[in-house]
Automatic annotation (TrEMBL), chain A:
GO cellular component annotations of the record: plasma membrane
Name of the protein: Phosphate transport system permease protein
Domain annotation ABC transmembrane type-1: ranges: 88-298
Primary localization class, coarse: membrane
Annotated TM spans: 25-47, 92-116, 128-149, 161-186, 207-229, 279-298
Organism lineage string: Bacteria, Bacillati, Bacillota, Bacilli, Lactobacillales
GO biological process, any: phosphate ion transport
PANTHER family (UniProt xref): ABC TRANSPORTER PERMEASE PROTEIN YQGH-RELATED (PTHR30425:SF2), PHOSPHATE TRANSPORT SYSTEM PERMEASE PROTEIN PST (PTHR30425)
Biological source species: Levilactobacillus bambusae
Superkingdom, natural source: Bacteria
Keyword Cytoplasm: no
Automatic annotation (TrEMBL), chain B:
Major site of localization recorded for this protein: membrane
Topology relative to the membrane: Multi-pass membrane protein
The name this protein goes by in its record: Phosphate transport system permease protein PstA
Keywords on record: Cell membrane, Membrane, Transmembrane, Transmembrane helix, Transport
Protein source organism: Levilactobacillus bambusae
From TrEMBL, chain C:
Organism: Levilactobacillus bambusae
Listed name of the protein: Phosphate ABC transporter ATP-binding protein
Top-level lineage group: Bacteria
SMART domains named among the record's database cross-references: AAA
Keywords in alphabetical order: ATP-binding, Cell membrane, Membrane, Nucleotide-binding, Phosphate transport, Translocase, Transport
InterPro entries: AAA+_ATPase, ABC_transporter-like_ATP-bd, ABC_transporter-like_CS, P-loop_NTPase, PstB-like
GO cellular component entries: membrane
Residues in ABC transporter domain copies: 29-268
GO molecular function: ATP binding; ATP hydrolysis activity; phosphate transmembrane transporter activity
Gene that produces this protein: pstB
Keyword Cell membrane appears in the UniProt entry: yes
GO biological process, one term: phosphate ion transmembrane transport
């Protein structure tokens, strides 16, 4: 080949080089868009969430410790009654109870699936859990309304709406997710751990308890925190069964509320920019911060697990 | 108690737990289908809902659910594909990439009600889109983006690097290599991921009640001009979806057959998601076969 | 032939040759002080080699000796993962500089890899699609190139009736031939082959070697191989790599029958590596 021509060809930016630049730009823009979206959500919710404190001068401490939620009424101290403690308590209670209930069932089922009877696990349990992960939360809420609430009413009296019903609905809702994530964690324990332990004469249960569960602990913790994050953030399923009374829960079967339930019912009934509306956004901010916290915990567990 | 006995007890307990869980999950499915399927009829699936009297259907809500799903997928898929390509093919391992991955992780863990409220604030109120299909589709896009991005990224990273080198060695740019070799080879698993995420979007309600709205105005199914207000295709009309409908009639419904309608709607939702699941597996396998044989 | 015979007695020193200036086979590619760093690690130290047009040069040496690193640097496939310094002169043009368009360069210097990597497309498309990307759209022209490339890689007779079949259905040997056909379809000047036969059975390997001997009439071939017999059967020149250095470079005959360095002798006779 003529050397000059070759030189020209090698030093002239080709069509491929141009396409490369354009493609890189396009794909980066898409990624940047997601980052912008995340930042916008955090920024807007934070701004709106702080408005109640900065514009309407709601006292931050009263907001977190006050037990009376009735923002359109002024309390004894001349401040609007915007105590979010009942909702925060409600959210934490249903989250913790549902996680406490789901954890043993999820771990037990996952162990059964992976260690005791892998055949039946793969054939029945895994498809069923995977399918139920995809069931919409309103369906869980509806079943809660039809089955759980009447049952609670019959057994414990009262209306049947309340923390207990919310807990039970969330328990069933997060069970498939936590189970399948726990199963993933167990599955990732290397085979030779089991073989080494069994070869030393340990029984199957000793192997599971002392070796496999230890090794899978970070993964199982992640699964539980993930389930808690879902419980805490779930709106409609809880809202349908909790009773929606913005009162401090006095018992597990008294009508109560959560951050999400007040948000879903209240947002449509208040005027944008009003105090009543702004305090709702403050609840949304609490929800957002909690979700960031769960995210951080999961990250820390992951880091610790990786170090081991 | 010796090791053998405790082993027996433990294994028996595990059997019991697994049995309880299976019973809970199966009775859940059974309850939905047993109560819901008898309600389903052609009339139920196509007739408009009635507010105060019995005998209404879910036709408009069902249409809305599908229309919203398709619209949000049309917005979401290109963004997720682009982002996944950048993350998997271009991004270097450094703190910027780590930060971006964190941001995506955060978006995926946000409660959908927060995403919905943000959509309400920005699109419904500030941008003046009102309660509309478009607002709803954008909210669903935010809700769906992180998961879809991760699914596509996983599909891309499953294609061996040898394929990339093969393209580059022919003098193709990385972009050409990715779009013409890697993405086509990943199509089966990308499609599977898209359909599975479609199932999730289809059942989502919390992100929609304040974006797509809670009302389903009558539609004229003879008018397909998207600029007409009663046209099913009009993206600016409010559109209650099936999932929102279930929530709505149970929270404040006053029709006498709310329970039957909810049962039927729940069954339709669950069956739709079952179908999405099976379709995802089936189509994925089919495409893979076509790719590897004649 | 030896530049400096005194090196022969000192095995720690490298020994290089100037290629015979042969008007029929002028030097087409040469490297000067080529160094490759993976992070802090220097994987290749000062490689100076020359390659003659229309001849086969074999790069041999134990695993991790830097021969594949060297080969992959020649068409800058290492750009993203390593730092490559020094000159790579291709027909007198240093292609190891930033303003060289790597895509145009790689169309001159093609590559075939260790594991066959056919694309998940039809056999026809495996060859045709890169051409189409570069503006060859005429169906007849494409048909012609596909046919001649497959013939060049000695695959045509086996697949001419199955051109629309998925390339993933081919056997290992056939798939590697397809990769060669794909590489020569864009009409490169030089073909780099990175242990192309290591995943193939003996029959496919010997077929591949015959194909390479045919191809050298039109292409300059540089091949990394672990297989001593292969190097001695097909190449004119052989370079011996060890620990990131080119220790000896000579005619293949000399390397295999009269190596000047003990370590080369040990390697080619199978005493280590």
């Amino acid at each position: 080949m003529d050397n000059e021509k070759l030189k020209r060809e090698l030093f002239r930016p080709s069509k491929a080089a141009k396409q490369e630049r354009r493609g890189k730009f396009i794909s980066f823009s898409a990624l940047a868009l997601i980052v912008v979206a995340v930042s916008a959500i955090i920024l807007f919710v934070t701004m709106k969430g702080l408005a109640a404190f900065t514009q309407n001068h709601v006292n931050v401490i009263d907001f977190f410790t006050g037990r009376d939620w009735n923002p359109s009424v002024k309390g004894a101290n001349g401040q609007p009654e915007a105590g979010a403690l009942p909702m925060i308590t409600g959210s934490f209670l249903v989250t913790i109870f549902s996680a406490l209930l789901a954890t043993p069932f999820a771990i037990g089922t996952a162990i059964f699936m992976i260690e005791i009877s892998p055949k039946r696990g793969a054939k029945i349990l895994q498809p069923v859990t995977e399918l139920l992960v995809g069931i919409p939360s309103v369906v869980y809420g509806f079943i809660g309304l039809m089955v759980v609430v009447p049952t609670v009413r019959t057994l414990f009296g009262g209306s049947g709406f309340g923390i207990l019903s919310g807990t039970l609905v969330l328990f069933v809702m997060i069970l498939p997710t936590v189970t399948s994530m726990t199963a993933d964690a167990l599955r990732s324990v290397p085979r030779y751990y089991r073989e080494a332990s069994l070869a030393l004469g340990a029984t199957q249960w000793q192997t599971i308890w002392r070796v496999i569960l230890r090794a899978a602990t970070p993964g199982i913790l992640t699964a539980i925190v993930f389930g808690m994050a879902r419980s805490f953030g779930e709106a409609l399923a809880v809202q349908m069964v909790i009773g929606n009374a913005a009162l401090m829960p006095t018992s597990l079967v008294s009508p109560s509320s959560t951050l999400t339930s007040v948000l879903t019912t209240g947002m449509g009934n208040t005027v944008m920019g009003s105090l009543q509306n702004n305090v709702l956004w403050s609840l949304a901010l609490v929800l957002l911060l909690m979700s960031l916290l769960f995210n951080l915990i999961i990250r820390l567990i992951g880091k610790k697990g990786a170090m081991k | 108690m010796n090791a053998k006995t405790s082993n027996k007890i433990a294994v028996a307990t595990l059997y019991l737990i697994a049995l309880i869980v299976v019973l809970i999950l199966l009775s859940l499915l059974g309850y939905i289908l047993y109560n819901g399927v008898p309600v389903i009829s052609w009339h139920f699936l196509t007739a408009p809902a009635k507010a105060f009297t019995a005998g209404g259907g879910i036709g408009i809500q069902l249409f809305n659910s599908f229309y919203l799903l398709i619209l949000s997928m049309l917005i979401c898929f290109p963004i997720a594909l682009g982002a996944a390509i950048y993350l998997n093919e271009y991004a270097k391992q450094n703190w910027v990439t780590a930060l971006i991955r964190n941001a995506i992780e955060i978006l995926s863990s946000l409660p959908s009600v927060v995403v919905g409220l943000f959509g309400f604030l920005l699109f419904v109120v500030y941008f003046g889109l009102g309660f509309s299909i478009l607002s709803g589709a954008i909210a669903l896009t935010f809700f769906n983006l992180p998961l879809l991005t991760r699914t596509i990224e996983d599909s891309l990273s499953a294609i061996p690097d040898a394929q990339r080198e093969g393209g580059l060695a022919l003098g193709l740019s990385r972009w050409e290599t990715v779009t013409k070799i890697i993405v086509p080879a990943a199509v089966p698993s990308i499609i599977t991921g898209v359909i599975l995420s479609a199932g999730r979007v289809f059942g989502e309600a919390a992100a929609l009640i304040y974006t797509a709205g809670q009302s389903a105005p009558a539609l004229n199914f003879a008018d397909w001009n998207p600029f007409n207000i009663s046209s099913p295709l009009n993206p600016m009309r409010p559109a209650e979806t099936l999932a929102v409908h279930i929530w709505k009639i149970n929270s404040e419904g006053i029709m006498p057959d709310a329970k039957a309608i909810s049962s039927g709607s729940s069954a339709v939702l669950v069956i739709a998601i079952l179908l999405f699941n099976f379709a995802a597996r089936f189509i994925g396998r089919r495409l893979y076969k076509r790719l590897t044989s004649s | 032939m030896l530049v400096n015979p005194s090196h022969a007695v000192d095995p720690s020193k490298e020994r290089h040759i100037e290629l015979l200036s042969d008007p029929a086979h002028p030097v087409i590619l040469e490297t000067h002080d080529l160094k490759v760093f993976y992070g802090q690690k220097e994987a290749l130290k000062d490689a100076d080699l020359q390659f003659n047009e229309h001849e086969i040069t074999a790069l041999i040496g134990p695993s991790g000796s830097g021969k594949s690193t060297f080969l992959r640097s020649l068409n800058r496939m290492n750009d993203r993962v390593a730092k490559v310094t020094g000159e790579i002169n291709y027909r007198g043009i240093d292609i190891n500089q930033p303003d060289v368009d790597i895509y145009a360069m790689r169309r001159q210097i093609g590559m075939v890899f260790q594991r066959p990597n056919p694309f998940a497309k039809s056999i026809y498309e495996n060859i045709a699609f890169a051409l189409r990307q570069r503006g060859v759209t005429n169906r007849h022209e494409l048909d012609d190139i596909v046919e001649s490339s497959l013939k060049g890689a000695a695959l045509w007779d086996q697949v001419k009736d199955d051109l629309n079949k998925s390339a993933l259905s081919l056997s290992g040997g056939q798939a590697q031939r397809l990769c060669i056909a794909r590489a020569i379809a864009v009409k490169p000047d030089i073909l780099l082959l990175d242990e192309p036969a290591s995943a193939l059975d003996p029959v496919s390997t010997s077929q591949l070697e015959n194909t390479l001997l045919e191809l050298k009439r039109d292409y300059t071939i540089i091949i990394v191989t672990h297989n001593m017999q292969q190097a001695s059967r097909i190449s004119e020149y052989t370079a011996f790599f060890n620990m990131g250095r080119v220790l000896e470079y000579d005619t293949t005959t000399n390397i295999f029958t009269n190596p000047q360095i003990q370590i080369t002798s040990d390697y080619v006779s199978g005493n280590f590596g």
